[in-house]
Design a protein that fits this description.
The complex is a heterodimer of chains A (500) and B (477).
Chain A: H1 3-21, H2 26-50, E1 59-67, E2 72-78, H3 82-100, H4 108-127, H5 131-140, H6 142-152, H7 157-186, H8 191-196, H9 201-218, H10 227-234, H11 237-262, H12 264-290, H13 295-315, H14 327-362, H15 373-376, H16 378-391, H17 398-413, H18 415-422, H19 424-439, H20 447-450, H21 457-475, H22 478-496
Antiparallel strand pairs in A: 1-2
Helix pairs in contact in A: 1-2, 1-4, 2-3, 2-4, 3-4, 3-11, 3-14, 3-21, 4-5, 4-6, 4-11, 5-7, 6-7, 7-9, 7-10, 9-11, 9-12, 10-11, 10-13, 11-13, 11-14, 12-13, 12-19, 13-14, 13-17, 13-19, 14-16, 14-17, 14-21, 14-22, 16-19, 16-21, 17-18, 17-21
Chain B: H1 2-7, H2 10-27, H3 34-54, E1 61-63, E2 68-70, H4 72-90, H5 101-119, H6 123-142, H7 148-179, H8 184-189, H9 196-213, H10 221-228, H11 231-237, H12 240-256, H13 261-284, H14 289-309, H15 313-340, H16 356-359, H17 361-375, H18 381-395, H19 399-424, H20 439-457, H21 460-469
Antiparallel strand pairs in B: 1-2
Helix pairs in contact in B: 2-3, 2-5, 3-4, 3-5, 4-5, 4-12, 4-15, 4-21, 5-6, 5-12, 6-7, 6-12, 7-9, 7-10, 9-12, 9-13, 10-11, 10-14, 11-15, 12-15, 13-14, 13-19, 14-15, 14-18, 14-19, 15-17, 15-18, 15-20, 15-21, 17-19, 17-20, 18-20
The chains are: A mainly alpha (500), B mainly alpha (477).
Chain lengths: 500, 477
């Protein structure tokens, strides 16, 4: 059975059915969406049974000739780097669909269909092994996201969604140029061929910059991050969750799958530049987050800061001086980056869900409108505080593991990078804990907060699941690290060889 | 021998017969109706398509002393233009008052002109086809007699078109003076030096071609004609003639003047870049839907010209591919406007589309397909059109031109997105409630819209079709 194609196209086909069911049968549409997204999650877990983490190659390969005159293949496969991201995607989609029921929506069937289509396309991005196929999934993802923010977003949604679209479109279209250029070098679109083709330094610099525009906008890195706070603030809760948890990871995945292995020498050349940008993201954007008055905006800025760790982990391996770096340390840094990706996916998703729970009751995101939520919603407050602490990288949560590994590895490579990166432990604690203090604790200043009812079971289920996963990865990250270790080692070894 | 040769012109003969039949039938009062005309037009085009497919040649063949050429390109372009016109005819609203019998007649005449251009191998024959097409188009634009705008647009189009034709004709006369022949076949075989006279003559011919495409700076008629013409007329105007323009360009530049390609590639490239930049920038400020499509057409022509300016086989193939997909997108866009218009609610401005997703989710979805296809977002056909042009540009080492092209397509994304946002994100009391179109129109527009998605998933057949019909030995691989 072609299981990868199944988990890509099952949600998309289900989405078509839901649209056909129309707005009169929303109830069955919702049930179908929930069922399909759970089935897809189950299937992606089932992949894990057959997945061999020790195998040094892509698995579950599917390959069909698609456009033979240009040697474009429908080529899918997964390795230890993409599999955890697929699991993250398939886990979050059912949770988002489950919670979407709590807030009534206009044209609900289109909402459900958009998320299912988005899920299929996201899995497509993580499984494509053909450059053009990757680009097609990567780019078509913009359509459902544009619609999700635009229809079900806040007051300023049109501005936010158009900005999101144009920003990411401008970045990713350079990716297309680079992919076509590589096609003429290799005679095909296979990403694995791109990895092995020798390229001159000039070519590498050109290709790296094209990739960088696409991926840096998506991550997003400072200074091309300005679309993210707007998109997050205006998007509906589900949109924010998917945006923060999965879409941002695609930029990082792009670096892992394209930039680093295809242009290793240019990556080394640009690594100081990227490290500086990442440190600016961690320190400066962290400070910006402190000043935010809007809860979603605050979490959005904190996402940018946390993604800074991912880029540090990926690019610190080149070192800043020419000293020889042990492969194990490189693997450690890379592992830290990927753990941070997954961990941030869980934590930011949970925080956006928490904000959604409060927003559904009070219809405001301003921090100053809250205060003393713990009095009316004690159980919810406990979960929110837990995720806040995880966001501030408390030991015992997954947030700690990723950041700690990255700091540990970079300290051995360049202590200065580690020192600046470690300031996040303070800054992150400041903005998160201060948020918690103002929203959850303190006196109930707003009359309406007293009337907030405790969260319902449907709201609680996703938060509890995410809390358990955050704890699990915090105390026992070994399974996750084991899944990716071979692929990471392989990648690090590959990068170590110059292509010149 | 003669009969054999005439057989190859069967499609043109069928169309001419169809025209005569239609003229006769409309003059007999009992059977004179728009429906009859529509049926005659449709049957004629189907027969012509069938005969063109039946006569598909494997190699090029000259008729009548090198005046007419029948090669794979001729057949390919003929078939595509017949199919396009057939879709246009299916998509025309017979109940609309301003669409008279003559509409179908004029459209058949124009198709005859296109067909002649596709198979001409002599500059005068090309001019003949061009004038048949142009005169039909002037009439078509002005055919909405009760609208001042339509008359104005027709007048403007006619005057500018006449000047363009004169310039084109002057170019032909210069060519005759320099080469001593008008047969393209002979022009190509004469080992001409790249003299000033040939350059000027070529420049004049290019002006004529650029006018037909509506490339900047010969574009001024495009938005006015699109806006002034009735939607049914604009539907024709914006689509099938582009195929003729491609044929014109191919016959003259590739078949005739490939030897001095360095002269014209640079001209085409300049025209292409200008059209891309200005067309897309001006489109941003448009509020009228048809004008918006007009300026967007200019931007698309920029892409088509860039593909041609590479002067390679790949470039020509990708340009043809782009032309065909462009035509399909424009058909869907204009036909959607026509389908959504009713007597009460004319869709003219972009804001007239507000809240379409509430009242007609299916047509909203079709519009979404078209708009994202025009931006070049996969999985729609427009993506592969842009991709193929970019591929040929990078192949020809024109990376900076490719970067200009993609940056402008991001600019273009803005105004296409605005259409989507009016349809999906804006709410209004005065949304389109009743649509007055026939079910034939609705089915046609749905099919073409879905075809855009299908081509985005399976572009291979159309890509292979383009490879097959661009088979000139003059082009380098």
């Amino acid at each position: 059975m072609n299981i990868l194609s199944t988990i890509i196209f099952l949600p998309i086909i289900a989405a078509l059915f839901i649209i056909l069911l129309g707005r009169t049968k929303v109830r069955s549409g919702y049930n179908l969406a929930l069922l399909v997204s759970f089935v897809v999650f189950a299937l992606s877990l089932y992949i894990g049974i057959g997945f061999d983490p020790g195998l040094n190659q892509f698995q579950f390969i599917e390959q069909v000739n698609w456009i033979s005159s240009f040697n474009i293949q429908y080529h899918l496969g997964i390795d230890g780097i993409s599999y955890p991201l697929i699991l993250l995607t398939t886990l979050l989609t059912p949770l988002v669909i489950l919670t979407s029921k709590t807030s009534p929506k206009d044209k609900y069937h289109q909402y459900l269909a958009s998320f299912l289509i988005l899920e299929g396309l996201m899995i497509g991005v993580f499984t494509s092994l053909d450059g053009l196929l990757f680009y097609i999934f990567w780019e078509s993802m913009l359509i459902p996201m544009f619609i999700i923010i635009g229809i079900w977003g806040g007051n300023n949604r049109v501005y936010a969604t158009v900005k999101f679209f144009l920003y990411t479109f401008l970045g990713s279209i350079f990716l297309l140029i680079a992919i076509i250029y590589l096609y003429f070098q290799t005679g095909g679109y296979a990403i694995t061929d791109f990895h092995t083709i020798p390229l001159t330094m000039n070519e590498q610099v050109f290709i790296f910059l094209a990739f960088f525009l696409a991926f840096a906008v998506k991550i997003p890195m400072w200074p091309v991050h300005t679309w993210l706070p707007d998109a997050h603030v205006e998007a509906p809760t589900g949109g924010s969750v998917i945006l923060a948890a999965v879409l941002l990871k695609m930029g990082a995945y792009g670096f892992l799958r394209f930039s680093l292995p295809i242009t290793p020498d240019a990556s080394a050349y640009f690594s100081p530049f990227i490290l500086v940008l990442s440190l600016i993201a961690i320190v400066y954007i962290g400070l910006v987050a402190i000043a935010q008055m809007d809860m979603k905006k605050l979490i959005a800025y904190s996402s940018i800061a946390h993604m800074g760790f991912v880029t540090i982990g990926m690019f610190v391996i080149f070192g800043l001086d020419n000293s020889l770096i042990h492969t194990e340390i490189k693997s450690l840094a890379m592992t830290g980056a990927i753990v941070q990706m997954i961990s941030h996916g869980l934590i930011s998703a949970a925080l956006f869900l928490c904000i959604g729970v409060m927003y559904d009751r009070l219809h405001t995101r301003q921090i100053s409108d809250y205060g003393g939520v713990i009095n009316s919603m004690p159980k919810f407050a406990a979960l929110m505080v837990f995720f806040g602490l995880a966001n501030a990288a408390l030991p015992g949560t997954s947030g700690f593991v990723g950041e700690f590994i990255v700091i540990l590895a970079s300290f051995q490579i360049n202590p200065w990078v580690a020192v600046f990166a470690a300031t996040t432990l303070i800054i992150g604690a400041v903005y998160t804990l201060w948020l918690i203090k103002r929203v959850i604790y303190g006196q109930t200043s707003n009359q309406k907060v007293e009337g907030m009812t405790e969260m319902t079971t449907i709201e609680a289920i996703p938060l509890v699941i995410l809390a358990l996963l955050v704890l699990l990865l915090g105390f026992w990250p070994a399974p996750l690290i084991e899944i990716m270790s071979t692929s990471v080692e392989n990648l690090v070894n590959h990068i170590a060889h110059s292509k010149l | 021998m003669m009969l054999e040769q005439i057989k190859l012109l069967m499609p043109e003969i069928i169309i001419a017969t169809g025209i005569c039949t239609m003229v006769l039938s409309s003059s007999i009062k009992i059977i004179s109706s728009k429906l009859i005309s529509q049926i005659i037009a449709a049957v004629t085009l189907m027969a012509a398509t069938a005969s063109a497919i039946f006569l598909l040649p494997s190699e090029s063949q000259y008729l009548f002393d090198y005046q007419v050429i029948i090669d794979p390109l001729t057949s390919g372009l003929r078939i595509s233009s017949y199919v396009i016109v057939l879709i246009v005819i299916f998509g025309t609203d017979v109940n609309e008052k301003i669409n008279q019998n003559e509409l179908f007649l004029i459209e058949l005449f124009a198709t005859l002109g296109i067909s002649i251009i596709c198979s001409a191998a002599n500059l005068l024959i090309i001019y003949l086809g061009l004038e048949i097409l142009a005169l039909s188009l002037y009439t078509l634009v002005a055919s909405n007699k009760h609208s001042i705008e339509s008359t104005e647009a027709g007048m403007k189009f006619f005057i500018l078109g006449a000047i363009a034709s004169a310039v084109f004709l002057y170019g032909i006369s210069l060519i005759y003076g320099t080469y001593g022949t008008l047969n393209i076949h002979e022009i190509n075989s004469i080992d001409s030096t790249n003299t000033l006279e040939t350059q000027i003559a070529l420049g004049f011919l290019l002006c004529g071609i650029a006018f037909k495409f509506g490339a900047i700076p010969f574009h001024t008629w495009v938005p006015d004609a699109y806006q002034g013409a009735s939607t049914s007329a604009a539907l024709f105007l914006s689509t099938a003639p582009k195929i003729a323009a491609f044929a014109l360009l191919y016959r003259i530049l590739i078949d005739g003047f490939m030897a001095i390609s360095e002269t014209w590639t640079i001209m085409i490239q300049v025209l292409g870049i200008l059209s891309l930049i200005l067309g897309n920038l001006i489109a941003i400020s448009q509020t009228n839907m048809k004008r918006l499509l007009g300026y967007s057409a200019i931007g698309h022509v920029g892409f088509i010209f860039l593909g041609i300016s590479t002067g390679t086989k790949n470039g020509l193939e990708s340009s043809l591919f782009y032309v065909l997909i462009y035509v399909l997108m424009m058909i869907t866009a204009f036909m959607s406007l026509e389908v959504l218009s009713s007597k009460k609610h004319k869709v003219e401005l972009i804001s007239d589309l507000k809240g379409l997703n509430n009242s007609h989710p299916w047509f909203a979805l079709i519009m979404l397909f078209v708009m994202f296809s025009m931006i070049g977002i996969p999985p729609f056909a427009g993506f592969f059109a842009k991709w193929s042009i970019l591929t040929s540009l990078i192949d020809a080492n024109m990376i900076y031109t490719a970067i200009i092209a993609i940056v402008m397509s991001v600019v273009a994304a803005f105004y296409y997105l605005r259409v989507v946002w009016y349809i999906y994100f804006e709410k209004t009391e005065l949304s389109i409630s009743q649509i007055g179109s026939s079910s034939l129109q609705q089915i046609t527009v749905s099919c073409v819209g879905l075809f855009l998605l299908f081509l985005g998933l399976m572009p291979k057949p159309l890509l292979d079709f383009c490879t097959k019909i661009i088979s000139s030995k003059l082009l380098i691989d």
